[in-house]
Each structure stands twice: as structure tokens, then as C-alpha cells.
Design a protein that fits this description.
Structural class: mainly alpha
Number of strands: 2
Shape: globular
Order of helices and strands: HHHHHHHEHHHHHHHHE
Distance between the termini: 42 Å
Radius of gyration: 23 Å
CATH class of the largest domain: Mainly Alpha
Strand content: under 5%
Strand order of the largest sheet: 1-2
CATH superfamily of the largest domain: MFS general substrate transporter like domains
Oligomer: single chain
Number of helices: 15
Helix content: over 70%
């Protein structure tokens, strides 16, 4: 019964989170096309529209495996496949929501078609998320109620339950701000006006893009790879860092299971502010490569932490590595999202499809990798030397390997003109010229994230 309930909750949660992710991304993508007309109120509303999705996703990736293994006491294989089921549901619903939100012609009571879909996602998340970390009322008596200060056990179930309600309450506040403070405009009319102005001023016409034409662009696949690798590095580390802290280091108080993600998120938040200036000075690609270089340095730190003898030195080294990881993943996540925005450009009619496909790929990839890691996981309920080494390898080699691959992909698209070949010349005397005109593109252009 518990297993069946977990499976249903995982699927429902991932579906609702997908609606939030896709709809907020495309609402934001349409809004940034005309930044000058946005009021401060609208900008603030846009900025908090992703909060519920982000904090539920953070808890899902950071604690779901820990919860399954140490609280529910599922086998490693079962925990991995339950996670994969949720990711598959998330990925499939991503494509459905992205296509449906693009093709929706009417909205609920003139509420806005994107906001309507977003509201559906909010409701589904509020309903499903509490059950993912909160077993049935009569199930708690079947668990052991003993615990200690260095491990997570079934006795900690009430802590996870309280945490889910805190997350839901906090996210709900920002969702109210988002929906009350934001008015979705008629993008169809605005796009026509923008295209007409473009034609009258530059004698160039923006091509209309479809999912077929997007799939024919090489740059789409390059951006998708960079996007996916950035998410794999972030999510794999999030998923196994608590287990690494408990089972590999094993000398620290279990409170570090909460301190470690906190350090990552705070530094990631702080690091996002100077990103626009850094991007302007160094360029999008170089900034991205620096971020992956910092990830490699962080993974090296995780490898050697286990060899430190002093508990104080372990604490300092772990927190320092987490701070470095927060800075680096903030850099790579923002830059990869900016690349996707550059790819879309002014062609917001295909924005939901681009975000949908990229999200689909990264969800499936994350689910498969974590399922495979859990399939070969030798760890039992009690920590062993083999278990400690296993998480050490996972937390080091998987993010490090994908960082190297991401750097190589960025180098391959160093001078690529993303979204810059979609204009047609309409002057009569230039009919015989090449119909493709390059748009001035600078990788130091403002970040679209």
C-alpha cells in the first residue's frame, strides 16, 4: 500500500511541477521580448513565479532518495525506479503541456492562457506534494522510533512531514503574489505590432518558426546538450550529497544534511546577482566554462574530504566545497538558460516547445542515471566502507565527467550565432540575394534568465 501510494504521488507531483516550469518559462520568455514596457510590479511578479516549483524540486532532488532509503526503508533499486517513474511522468507531461499551452486559443474567464495552465500546476502541486513525504496516518506505527544524532531513521518521519507543509505554505505565498501581481498580455497582437515595426524600420521580416524548423537547426541540439549537462550535474549532486554526507563522511551530525543544501542555495542566490556584469565583461561562453571549471574544483574537494581526520577540518572543507558548488551551478544554470533564450530570440511562438523538449531530455536523463546508480548501489541500512566509497565515486566522477563534456560542447559552439539567421530581406531590388540575413549578435548581450 505504501509503495503504491508513493508511486502515485511521485507521478502526480512531477506532472504538476512540469506545468509550473513550462508555463512560467514561456510567460517570462514572452515578457522579456519587451522589457521596456514592464512595470516594477510585473517584474517582481515574474521573479517569484517559479518559487513553488523551485523549492519543491529542491526538496524532491535533495531528500527523496534519503527519505526512501533511510525513512521508508525501501531497497536501493526500488527507490531508484520510483524516482525514475516520477521523472518519466514529468518528461512526458512536459511535452504535453508545452504543446497544449502553445495551442490553447482561449483562457479561463480572460485570465490568460499561460496563467491558467500555471494555476492548474499550482493546484496540482499543492495537492500532491505533501503526500510524497508524508505516509498514511496509520503507517507510522509500523516503523521503528529510535534514532541518533548522526543518522536519519524512520523516527524522523515527522520532521519530513513538517518540512513539506513549510515548503507548501512558503510557495503558496509567492504563487498568490505571482497571480495577483501579473496580468498576461495578448501576445498575438503584440507580436504583429513588433513584426510590423521591424519591417518598416529595417526592411527585414522575422521568419515564423515551427517545431519542425527548430529541429532542423544544429544550434538547437548544441543548446539542448549544454542545458541537459548543467541539470544533470546539479540534480545528481543534489540527490546524492545528503547520502554522501551521512554514509561517506559519517562523522558529522545529521544536521549537516540540512546545512549542506542551505549553503549551496544561499551562495547560488548571491552568485546570481553579479552574473549580468560578468557575462558582459567575459561573454556567455567564457562565463559558462569558468562555471564548469569551478565544478571540477568542487568535485576534487569532495573526493579528498573523506581522507581528512579532524571533524572541524571536515566541516570547513565540506561547507567550502558547497559554497563553491553553489557559485558554479548558479553560473552554469543561468548561462544554459540564457543560451536557450538566445536560441528562441524573438520567435516566442516556439518558446514552449524549445523549453519543453530540453526539459524532457534532462528529466529522462536524470531519471535514468539515478536509477542506474541505485541499481548498482551496494549500500544497506547501515553504512559500510564499500558504501562510503560508492557515494564518493558517484559524487565525484559523474558531475566531473559531465562538466568536461559540457566544456567541449561549449567550445564547439564558440562563434555560433544563436537565433540570428531568421530574417528575410523584403526589398524589391534585393530579391535575388540570399534570403538569410545575420542579426548582430554579441555573446555579451544581457542574460535572458
Amino acid at each position: 500500500m505504501i509503495v503504491h501510494k508513493i508511486r502515485i504521488c511521485a507521478v502526480f507531483l512531477r506532472f504538476s511541477k512540469t506545468i509550473l516550469l513550462v508555463c512560467h518559462n514561456i510567460i517570462t520568455e514572452k515578457s522579456i521580448a519587451q522589457p521596456d514596457v514592464l512595470s516594477k510590479r510585473s517584474k517582481f511578479a515574474y521573479s517569484v513565479g517559479h518559487v513553488l516549483n523551485d523549492i519543491t524540486a529542491s526538496m524532491w532532488f535533495s531528500y527523496i532518495l534519503l527519505f526512501y532509503n533511510h525513512v521508508v526503508t525501501l531497497t536501493n533499486v526500488s527507490a531508484g525506479y520510483f524516482f525514475l517513474i516520477g521523472q518519466i511522468a514529468d518528461a512526458i507531461s512536459t511535452i504535453f503541456v508545452s504543446l497544449a499551452s502553445d495551442r490553447t486559443r482561449t483562457d479561463l474567464f480572460h485570465y490568460g492562457k499561460r496563467k491558467t495552465w500555471h494555476l492548474i500546476g499550482v493546484i496540482c502541486t499543492l495537492i500532491s506534494f505533501p503526500f510524497c513525504f508524508n505516509l498514511c496516518i496509520g503507517c507510522q506505527n509500523s516503523f521503528s522510533v529510535t534514532g541518533d544524532e548522526s543518522s536519519i531513521t524512520s523516527a524522523d518521519l515527522p520532521i519530513f512531514r513538517k518540512l513539506t507543509f513549510i515548503v507548501i505554505g512558503f510557495g503558496l505565498i509567492f504563487m498568490i503574489i505571482f497571480h495577483v501581481g501579473l496580468k498576461e498580455s495578448n501576445q498575438t497582437t503584440e507580436e504583429k505590432e513588433r513584426h510590423s515595426k521591424l519591417i518598416s524600420t529595417s526592411n527585414r521580416k522575422l521568419k515564423q518558426m515551427t517545431w519542425k524548423t527548430i529541429l532542423c537547426e544544429k544550434e538547437f541540439y548544441q543548446c539542448a546538450v549544454v542545458w541537459t549537462f548543467a541539470r544533470i550535474i546539479l540534480n545528481i549532486t543534489q540527490a546524492f550529497l545528503p547520502l554522501y554526507t551521512i554514509d561517506t563522511i559519517s562523522k558529522l551530525n545529521r544536521v549537516y544534511v540540512a546545512i549542506v543544501p542551505l549553503c549551496i542555495y544561499i551562495t547560488s542566490f548571491v552568485a546570481s546577482f553579479p552574473m549580468r556584469i560578468i557575462n558582459k565583461r567575459l561573454g556567455r561562453n567564457l562565463t559558462n566554462i569558468i562555471g564548469y571549471g569551478l565544478i571540477l574544483a568542487c568535485m576534487i574537494s569532495f573526493w579528498f574530504i573523506i581522507d581528512i581526520k579532524s571533524i572541524l577540518q571536515i566541516q570547513i572543507a565540506l561547507i567550502s566545497a558547497c559554497i563553491l558548488f553553489g557559485i558554479s551551478t548558479s553560473t552554469t544554470s543561468i548561462c544554459s538558460t540564457a543560451l536557450a533564450s538566445d536560441l528562441i530570440g524573438l520567435n516566442t511562438e516556439c518558446g514552449a516547445f524549445v523549453y519543453g523538449v530540453m526539459t524532457f531530455v534532462d528529466k529522462i536523463a536524470n531519471g535514468i542515471i539515478i536509477a542506474l546508480v541505485q541499481q548498482f548501489n551496494p549500500c544497506k541500512l547501515s553504512s559500510t566502507h564499500t558504501c562510503a566509497l560508492y557515494y564518493r565515486y558517484i559524487i565525484t566522477f559523474i558531475p566531473g565527467g559531465f562538466s568536461i563534456l559540457a566544456i567541449l560542447m561549449i567550445l564547439s559552439m564558440w562563434k555560433t550565432n544563436l537565433g540570428g539567421n531568421r530574417f528575410e530581406i523584403i526589398q524589391e531590388e534585393q530579391r535575388n540575394m540570399d534570403m538569410k540575413v545575420n542579426v548582430d549578435f554579441k555573446e555579451q548581450s544581457p542574460l535572458m534568465a
